[in-house]
Design a protein that fits this description.
Elements: H1 3-11, H2 23-29, E1 36-40, H3 46-53, E2 57-62, H4 65-75, E3 80-84, E4 95-101, H5 107-119, E5 121-132, H6 136-139, H7 153-159, E6 165-177, E7 189-200
Parallel strand pairs: 1-2, 1-4, 2-3, 4-5
Antiparallel strand pairs: 5-7, 6-7
Length: 201
């Protein structure tokens, strides 16, 4: 899906994603001391806004101008720099935290985005990724139905082969999709996500 398609998707709805942060972003990163953060593929900015509210100076990046403008309006005076750009090519700032939440790309593009994002980290910085896991296609609910853009925590670790990092957490995690969610069904269902948290040496 290209930027124009995402622009159309965002323009067709007042709010595509929930306003609060992703549950794994909140659970894993709440205790980190604030610094400079980069939210790659930020969408409407729910994770960027949460980080900014906790004292982070955030750069929020997405290739949908509609999504970025919506995030900018929601942010008010929060310290967020909003950037319209492609994670595969745009210049990235040097930061203490990188968040990639549900950036679903084919293997070559994913590897480029992952390696570029990791390279933006200062030593001691945290790399955090959560994405629809490959097993979600057959065992879970929702998410992309194209196996080419699904991946696992091991895939991400392989993308970063040769880079200096310590693994804090890497594996598959369950996410409950409530029945009243637009992506749910008649009953609560389980979605499977890949989660990777690293510290750059």
């Amino acid at each position: 899906m290209d930027a124009d398609a995402w622009d159309a998707r965002y323009a067709a709805s007042d709010q595509v994603w929930s306003r609060g942060p992703n549950q794994f972003v909140e659970a894993e990163l709440a205790d980190l001391p604030p610094g400079a953060a980069l939210d790659v593929a930020c969408g409407e900015g729910r994770n960027a806004l949460w980080l900014a509210q906790r004292g982070w100076d955030v750069t929020a990046l997405d290739f949908s101008a509609v999504a970025v403008e919506r995030g900018r309006r929601l942010a008010g005076d929060l310290p967020v720099a909003w950037v319209v750009g492609d994670a595969l090519t745009v210049e990235l700032p040097e930061v203490d935290l990188v968040v990639l939440a549900y950036l679903q790309l084919a293997e070559d593009e994913r590897r480029t985005a992952v390696r570029r994002s990791f390279a933006a980290l200062r030593p001691g910085g945290t790399f955090f990724l959560v994405a629809h896991d490959s097993t979600n296609l057959t065992e879970g609910t929702g998410g992309p139905q194209d196996p080419a853009v699904l991946y696992t925590a091991d895939d991400v670790l392989a993308d970063l082969a040769g880079e200096p990092f310590d693994v804090v957490r890497a594996g598959r995690v369950a996410r409950v999709v409530p029945a009243d969610d637009d992506h749910g069904g008649e009953a609560d269902r389980t979605a499977w996500d890949a989660l990777v948290r690293l510290v750059r040496r």
